[in-house]
Specification:
The structure is a single chain. The chain is an alpha/beta fold. It has two domains: 3-241, TIM Barrel (Alpha-Beta Barrel), CATH 3.20.20.70; 249-318. It has helices spanning 3-9, 23-31, 44-48, 52-57, 76-88, 103-107, 118-131, 151-160, 183-191, 206-216, 225-229, 233-241, 253-265, 270-284, 291-300, 304-318; strands at 12-14, 37-38, 42-43, 67-72, 93-98, 136-143, 165-172, 197-200, 220-223. Strands 1, 2, 3, 4, 5, 6, 7, 8 and 9 form a nine-stranded parallel sheet that branches. α10 (206-216) links the parallel β8 and β9. The longest helix is centred in the C-terminal third of the chain and has 15 residues, at 270-284. The structure holds flavin mononucleotide (FMN).
Length: 337
């Protein structure tokens, strides 16, 4: 399935988030209007050694198509072989992580470290591109640090090497998750690039997603943490973009949460289900009355059934409650991109 065609029909893309956008959550978000989806970052070395844990991260469902497998690594040949393996597994595209700021990854030359050396970027993407027939995309930061922002050059290389798009998280590696994503810079990169661009960073509402799309001219908007605070962000953005009216009053958070629980339970052990459900319930509660007490209660719950009972009671009462603006609060300030 062609990811670029899907992006043209729906420009709102779920950002990859390690430990969050797993098989279950991707299926859930796909039903809730996300365009293409991508796995979290997966180690090319792990694939080389056929680590079962690594290979499990690559699994996806037919309902998720078009789906990309995101790889990270340092050695072009190793990443190329992993990309070929992803293609054999049936991925619709391969995405390379050039944005991870985490020291453990960067120290070895993986993630955003490569942005310091555009020739290394060229060597990596051209080696991987030659190894596969499916589309290749990359996800980058604006640069290594404020003095060396080079997204325009990286996008130029990506275009010359025949990649399908570049997703840009609007922060440098040095910023980690501090400060604000620089959408003015993303707009500049878009204006100077021939390759399709996905802008990413700090989009928390469907209206912001539309505004970013219109003001910067990007081809897609990638949304990560915003989907955890508002799982309806994709359906709503898509409706506004298509000129349809929003039906916010009919929100049924409790039914939504039950659906998510089903997706997770279908794939995960009781223990993992409990961990995941508690996290998602806590995130979805953001900005609603009683969220703090609710979080305390679910983090004390000792079983899936107790977590579900507490969560459903909370979400049922929410139906018409307005969500407060929490954009100034710190929220998940660390990740792999
Ligand atoms: C917990 C967490 C895990 C992340 N894992 C990944 C990852 O595996 N691959 C990646 O490219 N980006 C990863 N990111 C970065 C996001 O894709 C995104 O670029 C970043 O969160 C900014 O977008 P947002 O403000 O919409 O969340 C992660 C972010 C978070 C918060």
């Amino acid at each position: 399935m062609d990811p670029l065609k899907t992006l043209r029909d729906n420009p709102f893309v779920l950002a990859p988030m390690a430990g969050i956008t797993d098989h279950a959550f991707r299926s859930f978000m796909k039903k809730l209007g996300s365009s293409v989806v991508v796995t979290e970052l997966i180690s090319a070395t792990g694939i080389q050694y056929q680590s079962q844990k690594t290979i499990d991260l690559m699994s996806f469902g037919e309902d998720q198509r078009p789906v990309g497998i995101q790889l990270f690594g340092e050695e072009p040949e190793v990443v190329a072989q992993a990309a070929r393996f992803a293609q054999e597994k049936g991925a619709d595209f391969v995405d390379l992580n050039f944005g991870c700021p985490v020291p453990k990854v960067v120290k070895k030359g993986g993630g955003s470290a490569i942005l310091r050396d555009p020739q290394a970027v060229r060597a990596m993407v051209s080696t991987v591109k030659k190894a596969i027939d499916i589309p290749l995309t990359i996800k980058i930061r604006t640069g290594w640090d404020a003095g060396s922002r080079n997204a325009v050059e990286i996008c130029h290389i990506a275009y010359e090497e025949g990649l399908t798009w570049v997703a840009i998280h609007g922060r440098t590696r040095s910023q980690a998750y501090e400060g604000k994503a620089d959408w003015d810079y993303i707009a500049e990169v878009k204006a100077q690039s021939k390759i399709p661009i996905l802008g990413n960073g700090d989009v928390l509402t469907p209206h912001q997603a539309i505004e970013r799309l219109r003001q910067t001219g990007v081809d897609g908007v990638m949304i990560g943490r915003g989907a955890l605070k508002n799982p309806y962000i994709f359906v709503d953005a898509l409706k506004i973009w298509r000129g349809e009216s929003l039906s916010g009053d009919n929100r049924d958070f409790a039914a939504l949460f039950r659906e998510l629980a089903e997706c997770i339970q279908a794939r995960c052990s009781e223990h993992i289900t409990q961990i995941q459900l508690r996290k998602f319930a806590a995130w979805f509660a953001t900005g609603y009355p009683g969220a703090a007490a609710f979080r305390k209660a679910i983090f004390q719950s000792t079983s899936v059934s107790e977590t579900m009972e507490t969560s459903i009671a909370f979400f049922e009462a929410l139906r018409l409650a307005p969500q407060e603006d929490t954009s100034d609060e710190r929220f998940l300030m660390g990740g792999h991109g």
